[in-house]
Design goal:
This protein is of the alpha/beta class. It contains 6 helices and 7 strands, in the order ββββαβααβαβαα.
């Protein structure tokens, strides 16, 4: 996939570089399937998709499979048939949203057992890269949260 521009989480991903159908037309699509056996699905939109890819890379390096799903339009995704939505958001995986804004609304996708990573406050002003670090929107900050959610008791 080609990068265009630079997002705080890494290079912006350009879906136009994909060959084939317009996957964005379905509202959400699997940008990348897990390499290791899938244990979670990372959901993101906009510049956070690059961050989700970085988080998936870090988890895959630990043998934890993570799909990356780009969610450009909740309304279009909600209009898809049940089978498509279940394929994108499988019930046997931890669902994790990454949103550099409010978590409001993501609960409909991650469910009560999922993890919504976001920022439910406002008022900070600084370069985006500085704010991402300050508020924990880095792979280094997100991976431990996911590991805890996958293994809340800390048992091996």
């Amino acid at each position: 996939m080609l990068g265009i521009g630079t997002a705080p989480g890494g290079p912006a991903l350009d879906p136009r570089a994909q060959k084939g159908p317009n996957l964005s037309a379905r509202g959400a699509y699997r940008l990348r399937a897990a390499y290791a056996p899938r244990r979670l699905v990372l959901l993101a939109t906009g510049s956070e998709v690059s961050l989700a890819v970085q988080v998936a890379d870090a988890l895959e390096g630990r043998g934890i499979g993570a799909d990356v799903v780009s969610v450009p339009c909740w309304e279009l995704f909600g209009a898809q048939d049940d089978a498509y939505r279940a394929d994108i958001l499988p019930g046997d995986a931890l669902l994790v949203s990454i949103e550099a804004g409010a978590t409001l609304g993501w609960e409909r996708y991650v469910g009560p057992g999922g993890l919504a990573i976001g920022l439910d406050r406002f008022g900070a002003s600084a370069p985006a890269e500085d704010l991402f670090k300050r508020f924990g929107f880095t792979a280094e900050a997100i991976v431990p949260r996911i590991l805890t959610a996958l293994n809340p008791t800390g048992d091996e």
